[in-house]
Every structure is written in structure tokens, then in C-alpha cells.
Amino acid sequence: MKKEIIFAALALMTAIPVGAKTKKKELPKDTLIFTTVVENPVTCIKNQNSSGTCWSYSSLAFLESEVIKKHPEMKDDLDLCESFLVSKTYTDRADRHVRTHGDASFSQGGSFYDAIFCMEHYGLIPEGIMPYPMTNYGDSLFNFGCFFPPMEAYLKAIAKSDAKKINPAWKKDLQHMLDNYFGECPTEFEYKGKKYTPQSFVKDYLSLDPNDYVSLTSYSHQPYYGSFILEIQDNWRWASSYNLPLEELVRVMEESVRNGWTFAWGADVSEEGFSRRTGKNKCVATVPDTKETAGVGSDQSRWTGEKAGTKISESDNAGEKTITPEMRQLAYDNWETTDDHGMQIYGIAKDQNGKEYFMMKNSWGDYGPYKGFWYVSKPYAAYKTMNIVINKNAIPTDIRKKLGI
Questions:
Q1: Class of residue 92 by CB neighbours under 10 A (exposed 0-12, middle 13-18, buried 19+)
Q2: Which residues of 319-331 are buried (b: 16+ CB within 10 A; e: fewer)?
Q3: Per the CB 3.0–4.6 Å rule, which of 80, 143, 337, 361 could disulfide with 60?
Q4: Helices (H), 315-368
Q5: DSSP 169-188
């Protein structure tokens, strides 16, 4: 038996030379390798699954980081309930839809302000107090395929009715639909041995103040340093955003992260540069500079912003377009930049060439090479940001003064 073992060992030694090393798998050429520059605390990745509720996941992710900034000890178990926020929001949105005879849209989407409004008027609750959707069937993830279309059709029938009077019973019917899917929203609950209402949970446990949060954007069709209502369908509460010049909006985004803050990020993710599929740099968002130089100096340059306007990140823009206010405005006016997706920006990283990116937390589950996290180039953020919601204390003092907040 011992002799057999010795012969086997000798055979193995002859098969694999002494000192041989396993060859590492080489990455494809030009693969980006990221190093963290600054990273602020976030909670774990969630999954919105088959639903249009990114606004709920991203705004609550942002608020969770706001709580952690005040109470670092809460990081490991803090998880706010999306179902509560979504149910309360859909109730209000349905009311607005009917009151405007269907002109105010009713859809799965929403805005960051829905979370701020809910926090102020209804409160928030922790995950686990309301039942998970479809718990009876073993599914803990949102799936609106069967739930939402019937509710949408019902509301359309009410909103577009020719009736002289609207029977108020429709609100009870709607609430039954929401409660049957999400569970009933509690008016009181027990958490970690103490009793709370959703309002007292915000004030006493989370220590959040709705008045601390503002929305910022940058579009030239409205005066800078004032506020206006972003003309997008999911801004159905008609919330206002402060309007900053592009270079100042980008400055707020960067300096706030470097100073320990995060923010909710609303952006267009339908661009080719938002690489969600295959490829060596999957889960990276960039604005590839593929445009030919023909036409620069003509009327084309006036509309595209090339060689004109305030340029963003020109020195840090290798391989990407230089973003100008004119480019942003044209994309917004032409519906190229749309209110696609809500996410959270929480850090800054750099690639092997020294180029910096924002670190983004998504709500598509454990997806991609970074397990649910993404890297967003500064030009992409400058070009495709619809708005951000941020703690007003994170805004540089001189810009806050210009805004009067």
C-alpha cells in the first residue's frame, strides 16, 4: 500500500514540474479595473424584480444611508419597507388621476419626492412589518404582471367615466386591491421591543426630518437659481426642483460624496453607454465619443454644444464626449433624456488610467460583475442626470446661499 502511494506521488511530480504556477486568466484588453477613492456606507442590494418601483428602492436606499450617517450602529440591520411607500403612493396617485379625469398619469413609476412626502405625511416602517407580496405562494419579490393591469384598467374606467357623479366607493375598491397584494399598511407596530406609529418611527427611531431634503436639476429653459416643476410624467405630485448651472450641479454631486454624503440619482439609462448586457465593461455607464468631427463650426455645433458652452470634465474625459448645457437641454427637449430609473450614488472610484467614476447602487438584485453595484462616468452623470435628491446640508455653502436654502 505504501509502495503504491510513493509511485503515485512520483508520477504526479513528473506530470507537474516543481515550481510550476497556474496561469492566470488574462482580462480582455481595455477592461476597466476600479480602485475606490471614497465610499460612503450603504445598505445591502435589493431587487425590485418585475415592477416599476425603482423610485421606491432608490429613495429608501438613500434615506437608509442618511440614517446610517447619524447612527452607524444601525448599518447591518436597517431595512425600510418598500411596500408601505408604494401602497401609500399609489393611493394618492390614483386620487390625482381621477380628479384630473385621467390627465395626470397613473403608472408603476414615481419620484423621489414620493418618499419625502410619505415620510412627512404618513411616516415609514421597517421591512417585515407588512407581509411580503404573494407570501402565500412563496414569492417575496414584486411581480406586477397580474396585479397592476387590472388596477390600472379599473382607475381608467372611473377617471374617464361619463357619470355625473363619482361614487366614492371606488377608493375602498382600490384600497382592497392594494391591501390584497401588499398587505394592509399598519397604523401602529412593535419594533425591537418598542411600539411605534409610522410617523413616530421616522422621528424617534430614524431621526429623519423631511425638511432636510431638496431636489436639484440643471436645464436652461428655466432661470438658474430658482425652482420649477420638472415636466416629467412621474413627477405627478408636481414637486419643484432647484435649477443650477450644469457645472454647479456636477460640483454638488462630486463634493457631497467626497464629504461623506450620498444622494438619490434619477437618470436616463436607455443609452448605449449604459452597459447592462454583455461585454468586457458590463455595469459601467459612459458616453462614448463616436461622433465624427464633420460639421463642427457650423449650425451643428450650436445644437450639439461642440466647441461651445461650459464644458464638463474635459481634462477627465478620455474617450468620452465633452458635455455642455446645450447638449443636456437638447436631449431633454427631444425626449432623448427621459426619467428612466432611480438609483443611489454613494462613492467615487478611479480606473487604472486615473479617470474617476461615481459608484452607484442599483435595485436589480445581485446583478453583474459588481454584484448589483455600477460605475458611472462623470460625463454620463453630467449628460443624463434628470435630478438628484440630497440633504441640503451636503450642498456647498456658496451654492446654498445662491439658492436661498
A1: middle
A2: ebbbbbbbbbbbb
A3: 80
A4: 325-333
A5: HHHHHHHHHHHHHH-PPPSS
Q: Which three cell numbers stand for residue 74?
A: 444601525
Residue 126 has a pLDDT of 96
pLDDT of residue 280: 66
Q: Which residues contact 25 (CB under 8 A, 6 or more apart)?
A: none
Residue 49 gets which letter from DSSP?
-
Give the separation between CA 395 and CA 405, rounded to whole angstroms: 10
Q: Is the dihedral of CA 100, 158, 178, 200 positive or negative?
A: positive
Looking at per-residue pLDDT, the higher value among 25 and 173 belongs to 173
pLDDT in tens, 62-85: 999 999 999 999 998 999 999 999
Helices vs strands, H then E, count in the chain: 12, 13
14 C-beta neighbours (distance < 10 Å), count? 8
User: Per-residue pLDDT tens for 386-402?
Assistant: 999 999 999 999 999 99
How far is it, in rounded angstroms, from Cα 394 to Cα 254? 10
Residue 322 and residue 311: Cα distance in Å, rounded?
A: 6
Q: Are 36 and 349 in contact (CB under 8 A)?
A: yes
